[in-house]
């Protein structure tokens, strides 16, 4: 039986306006909606989600003052810091209005707003929620292990880990966080690394004083990280993933997915295709792009490659960049699209490997479809995810060189796709896929954690 209050409760959720964050927040909203809650999404005008795909939700845009100046902000830390300043007043005004609209005044049954659920990186929302005496639950869209690494930045900084390093020093272990190497520690392409560390510190501290942390992960995958997190963060923690097994990511896509690649996959042999995508933000220089193209072609494995606008730095159109002879060489062997229905692609029987940047959504989607990975992380949490994929879960191998080089790419693709090592990874990832399926079923760890989350929300 549905708890009495649930039908009268409206949850307010607020995502960070990037694909890798919007998707899990809207999936979480869909999960909670399926449990009887009404949903309001407060979002920035910049990268606003496609509300027409969610007719049951209320979407409220707030002015962020960013859309007008976004093209002049090249530094991601500047962007995130501005976002956390510019949104305070419009977000607060919006929340105040919602709270006043839903408060009961004549004894008739009205909706209550038990709490706010916001992305960890929208750290300003903690102060706003506190000022309105509204509990805030935090959605951390990355892995637990990467969050622990962000939380360790102050200690690691004190120990000198973030000082400039030689190539050999980058290969040294981080003894406090095995099996990470120095090169796996979070970085961002910023002019002001100090501001990046401070921003991460604020995100972690504001999460620590929240009313609970929600993760898109599952216990069998991050058991030891979960135990450590529980010691460091004495607040309720809810591991209710994988979200995409409950609600697909497609409806939250900011770009149009080109479905023609599915018919192409239909013509390919089982587990023969390597799917290649670096998510929504990663970019590379032209030289690396050319190395990537030749590495793929020389591997002789069929591939499906997502080449989205902006993948190559400073070039919105990739067509002129194809190296001479490349398109002729891959004729029939390669399918190239601007954006793919990724979840469907990973679930397709023809796909046998995923060359990824290890954004957390991609990593989890790959694990849950039983697809081993070739890892090429770029920034932020991706290096930690990649290290766990290759060295802890052993469901992928990592391109260790900083620069992409066609020979290493060709060899690695063949290890993943045709050699025994790749087959072993495929077996391990198939078993993790099975565990992910069990955990969301009645009685599984994520199922139970979702029940706990609902109880927590109803207790506010
Ligand atoms: C960002 C950060 O880069 C990442 O490190 C962090 O963990 C989350 O935020 P992004 O780079 O976009 O995310 O990567 P990822 O987390 O993998 O999310 C990409 C999403 O886009 C996935 O859900 C994926 O299914 C979807 N996608 C990707 C498509 O639908 N089509 C594509 O062609 C590529």
TrEMBL record:
Gene3D superfamilies registered for this protein in UniProt: Glycogen Phosphorylase B (3.40.50.2000)
Name of the protein described by the UniProt record: Uncharacterized protein
Keyword Protein biosynthesis: no
Domain of life of the native organism: Eukaryota
MF-aspect GO terms: quercetin 3-O-glucosyltransferase activity; quercetin 7-O-glucosyltransferase activity
Classification via PANTHER family: GLUCOSYL/GLUCURONOSYL TRANSFERASES (PTHR11926), UDP-GLYCOSYLTRANSFERASE 76B1-LIKE (PTHR11926:SF1464)
Transmembrane segments: none
Record Pfam families: UDPGT (PF00201)
InterPro entries: UDP_glucos_trans
SUPFAM superfamilies found in the cross-reference section: UDP-Glycosyltransferase/glycogen phosphorylase (SSF53756)
Keyword list, A-Z: Transferase
Family of the protein in this entry: Belongs to the UDP-glycosyltransferase family.
